[in-house]
Please model this.
Amino acid sequence: MEMTIIILFCVLLLLCVIFDIPLLIALIGGLGLFWLYGFKKGFGPKQLLSMMGEGIKTVKNILITFMLIGMLTALWRAGGTIPVIVSYAIKLIHPSVFLPMVFITNCFVSILTGTAFGTAATMGVICTTMSAAVGANPLLVGGAILSGVFFGDRCSPVSTSALLVSELTKTDIFDNIKNMIKSCAVPFDATVIVYFAIGLLNSTNAALPDLQAIFAQEFVISPIAVIPAAVIIVLALMKKKVKFIMIVSIIVSIPVCIFVQGVDIAALPKMMVMGFTAHNAQVAAMMNGGGMVSMLKAGAIVCISSSYSGIFKQTGLLDGIEGKIAALYEKTSSYTATLIAAAAASMVACNQTLAIILTFQLCQNAEKDNRRFAINLEDTAVVVAALVPWSIASGVPLAAAGADLASIPFAVFLYILPVWRLITCRRNVKW
Model:
């Protein structure tokens, strides 16, 4: 019966993908299937609701962080933080090294914001706009953007996926980040080299657009606007709690909006809820967005997805599969087994959050070292989810950046990282 329930859930997900139906419909349908399974196992409605509550409780900090991210990204737009950073970063880009710089700048912005979606909707849009000006291959640019946005989504101190992994494994997020930096150092360097080599083969002499002049039509381009981002870095280095870091950056952003950009103080509450809207049409195409409303859909997906974990745990729906994963651990390695589980979970889940939770559920009894388990999850489910064409993990960032799904094969970092981990796990490298 367990496999029947899982197969029916997979069918729901596929139907939503094929007919372009919102993923939330499939997730709600899956919740109904799992309730039916619970009833069959003798559990009542109150017990199932309690199971859901236990699952949601594990990600309550994620949901709060989502709302803080919404407010923060709106204020960073309104205060000119993102435009100023972009304006400075663009000066480092030359057409001959355009591709590696697309990757690096998206890495940088995604580390600051902690969100793949938000980075793709800002820096990603800018990069695809510039790619037309320099004659770069749009598929290569899309791949570099996808690689970059998930670099930061994986290891930023304000990343919800990094926070989710730390919450599930009960590990410290900053310890996890240290391990993630170690495990991705070689893949990062290799990715830059690959994009640099491709860039040299496809280099042009076209000039880049003057984005600082474009942003100057809407914002005051001042170094002061970078302070809210600098606060994130400084407090992260001091190992402060993520929510505290974001709240401080929000507080610092408010006077920047008012005194640097001249935003009406009365307009700030609405902006933090609904998002930033630029007056200039050219700037609006790149900068509009943010706000708590922008995180509602992602929050709903996380909420429903996390409720599954409580049901799975109490009803034993995944027990049979967990046993097979444990056997795989014995035959291969902890990372290899986690990677296989993550690949299957990502194809079924269609979103990163559920892929992480499912992989955790499948592997938690096989891996006893929580710190190693955390880095295994970060180097599997977090990045592999973005390689699934029908997953929102790849579809949303690429769509936001104006890139095609055919860019996925060129997301070099997302392939090199798992391959490098497979090589190092055979050499018993400790993270």
Notes: The mean pLDDT is 86. The chain is about 75% helix and 0% strand. The CA atoms of residues 142 and 408 lie 8 Å apart. The chain has two domains: 2-59+296-426, 60-290.
